[in-house]
Amino acid sequence: MYAETLKHIHRLIVHDGLAPGDRLPSERELAERLGVGRSSVREALRALEFLGLIETRRGEGTYMREIGSHQLIDLLAMFLLENERAKADLAETKWLVERLLLELFCQRRSEEAISRLEKTVRQKPIDFERFFQTVAEEADNYLLVRIWRALSAFAAAFAPKPPLADSFYDQLLAALKKRDRTEAVAVWEAHRPWPLSKKN
């Protein structure tokens, strides 16, 4: 229901011709127009806000945002919303982007970032998105971070994954502390096999 609501909201935005700065209908109005529950609308709006496509202003409502110079993000979001066959490609692309971000993290990470990762790992159950948010931000590539956020938001809707074993985080954190790109990728691939979208 959540993924379908996301697609319906997108179509409504297109149908209404909403542009950056325009106000979206309220949660209640969206629920009535789409014939879904307000909880589904709320989750869909959170995903759109996470992607940077809308913003909520306290006491004012929800507004369309200016996407900015990286139009690829907007194209990616619309592609995933419209193309049901994109799910396999989504999983593969997310995996590849995350592996690349791990390698960049090894090159650019700070001790403060390692401390944040250690704190996240100590909190059980371990939140993968929170863990990897630190990795992504420290990789210091704004476009890759935006792409990863978009992929993560849609992956959560289309293909939720079971939690990873604590041993994965322990081994990965040890490799990241050493800035060992080869070991980090090896741990990644051992615990998260490449989700090939197409097979020969």
Mind explaining what this structure looks like?
Residues 1-67 form the HTH gntR-type domain. InterPro entries: TF_FadR/GntR_C, Tscrpt_reg_HTH_GntR, WH-like_DNA-bd_sf, WH_DNA-bd_sf. The protein has 2 domains: 2-64, Arc Repressor Mutant, subunit A (Orthogonal Bundle); 71-191, Up-down Bundle (Four Helix Bundle (Hemerythrin (Met), subunit A)). The chain has helices at 2-16, 27-34, 38-50, 71-82, 87-108, 111-122, 128-138, 142-158, 166-177, 181-191, and strands at residues 54-57, 61-64. The chain is 66% helix and 4% strand. The mean pLDDT is 83. It has a two-stranded antiparallel sheet with strand order 1-2. The longest helix has 22 residues, at 87-108. With 200 residues, the protein is mainly α. The protein is built from 10 helices and 2 strands. Helix 2 (27-34) packs across helix 3 and helix 6 runs antiparallel to helix 7 (128-138).
* The CATH architecture of the largest domain: Up-down Bundle
Mean pLDDT: 83
Total strand count, please?
A: 2
Order of helices and strands: HHHEEHHHHHHH
The major β-sheet equals: 2 strands, antiparallel
Number of helices: 10
Global geometry: elongated
Q: What's the domain count?
A: 2
Low-confidence stretches: none
Instruction: Walk across the major sheet and give the strand order.
Output: 1-2
Rg calculated over all Cα atoms: 18 Å
Protein name: GntR family transcriptional regulator
InterPro entries: TF_FadR/GntR_C, Tscrpt_reg_HTH_GntR, WH-like_DNA-bd_sf, WH_DNA-bd_sf
Keywords: DNA-binding, Transcription, Transcription regulation
Organism: Geobacillus uzenensis
